[in-house]
Design brief:
Strand content: over 45%
Radius of gyration: 27 Å
Distance between the termini: 42 Å
Order of helices and strands: EEEEEEEEEEEEEHEEHEEEEEEEEEE
Structural class: mainly beta
Helix content: under 10%
Length: about 450
């Protein structure tokens, strides 16, 4: 009841099939329990065991998955399983030699949710256990007609039909429901434009690609009663009406030297925003301002040199003029012996400002060091820190990791435990055979 077992296995077969398996067990009083990665509050995680089998051909993809996720909280126990999920996709292909392109995904899943609330002697409450099972069959054939009226334009209109059967509805009545409706839309890319700048030993190419996407999902006048009773399990269950336009413009700057055969992207800038036509034409609650425009997203990726990376990703609220979220990334490569990574995250609601950094050194003789940390800038505390020392030879390796983390846990009596926990990991690896020991999840990764 104290230990934990984690095993990963991957097997590739000669016929092109691929299988992945993971066994994850955690004792209820184990000292090595993993916690969530939130900055302000760390919550107990869950074990995650699964078996996945896939087989892909030139025109069909088939997968079979069984998954079991079990919470390891000290209070309420939860368990969520997929037993199993069968997915089959007929890849996009020309339909009977015509210009039409067809795609047929089919997903059948059985979901089971279990919740156990332990007994409470103080309130004389007995242990309770609730179980819920939902079976879902989802079929969504899509027919599209891609064409190019000119070299600068690509147009792809499409129509899709959704047929989804649930063994019960969202009100947990035994009555099964079947949802049927259509989706239509189109994608317009272009007019594409570019300009080249040439010198004796190098060349730059600037490309501009605007794009507009339109998607329409009919209102509840089509199968509205069942659509509003759909159980919300994952993103496949969203059947809300939609009438949206999405605009984006992508700019790229490519660099190529005389010695290179393929250019390298050094700047990528994409701006995107959507317009909700249903919201713009809304008649109910007219005292509430209509806000059809979504938040503007700007994504800037730069890699001007092979040793430097600078990225910014932000969202701006059009109506209050305030920035909702921004992520900044820096990557630096100092020759072959050192590297630096830095991330800074800002979110307005809930207010979050955090920094994550990594510094690594490689030394002669197979030795290397990495130090990383996550800092909560709002509360001015470190939530995680990690130091890894590693040695690697041609046939074996040894890694020693020291990790510290701030741990906040809600106890059964309603109090909160706040402490700094330190852990030590040791891993011995034999090249081509395997490894023994334990290692934590990394806090930050190399960007270059």
């Amino acid at each position: 009841n104290v230990g934990n077992v984690k095993d990963h296995n991957r097997q590739k077969f000669k016929n092109g099939a691929d299988s992945r398996a993971r066994f994850d067990y955690e004792g209820e009083t184990s000292y090595s329990k993993e916690f969530g990665s939130g900055i302000n509050l760390f919550s107990m995680r869950y074990t995650d065991s699964y078996v996945n089998f896939t087989k892909n051909t030139t025109d069909t993809a088939i997968s079979f998955t069984v998954r079991d996720q079990k919470s390891i909280e000290s209070a309420t126990k939860r368990r969520f399983t997929r037993q199993p999920e069968i997915r089959m996709v007929r890849m996009s292909h020309e339909l009977f030699g015509t210009p039409f392109v067809a795609n047929l995904p089919l997903v059948a899943t059985s979901f089971r949710n279990e919740k156990i609330v332990p007994a409470d002697p103080e309130t004389d409450t007995e242990k309770t256990k609730t179980e819920d099972t939902i079976n879902r069959l989802d079929i969504r054939p899509t027919l599209s007609l891609p064409f190019s009226p000119s070299r600068a334009f690509n147009v792809t209109p499409f129509v899709s039909y959704r047929l989804t059967h649930y063994s019960r509805n969202a009100q947990k009545r035994e009555r099964p429901i079947t949802v049927e409706y259509y989706t239509a839309g189109a994608s317009l890319e272009g007019p594409r434009a570019y300009r080249a700048f040439k010198a004796e030993r190098w060349a730059l190419k600037h490309t501009i690609t605007p794009k507009m996407d339109y998607k329409f999902i009919p209102g509840y006048e089509i199968d509205g009663e069942d659509r509003q009773l759909v159980p919300q399990i994952d993103s496949r269950d969203n059947s809300s009406p939609a009438n949206n336009l999405r605009f984006s413009i992508l700019q790229r700057l490519l660099h190529k030297t005389k010695e290179q055969t393929v250019g390298r992207q050094i700047v990528r800038l994409e701006m995107m925003q959507s317009y909700n036509i249903n919201e713009a034409n809304r008649k109910d609650a007219e005292w509430v301002d209509r806000r059809p425009l979504s938040k503007l997203r700007v994504d800037l990726d730069t890699n001007p040199f092979g040793w430097l990376l600078l990225n910014v990703d932000l969202t701006q609220n059009h109506y209050n003029g305030m920035m909702e979220k921004m992520t900044q990334e820096v990557g630096l490569l100092l020759g072959k012996w050192a590297y630096v990574s830095y991330d800074r995250l800002y979110a307005r609601e809930p207010k979050t400002v955090s920094s994550k950094g990594l510094v690594g050194f490689k030394m002669h003789g197979g030795f290397s060091f990495e130090a990383s940390a996550i800092h909560d800038d709002v509360n001015q505390i470190y939530s995680n820190s990690m130091l890894e020392m590693k040695y690697e030879s041609d046939c074996w390796g040894l890694a020693l990791t020291v990790e510290g983390r701030r741990r906040i846990e809600e106890l059964d009596n309603g109090n909160v435990r706040d402490e700094w926990e330190q852990r030590l990991y040791l891993v011995l690896s034999l090249k081509g055979i395997g490894e023994a020991g334990a290692k934590p999840k990394t806090l930050a990764g190399r960007k270059l």
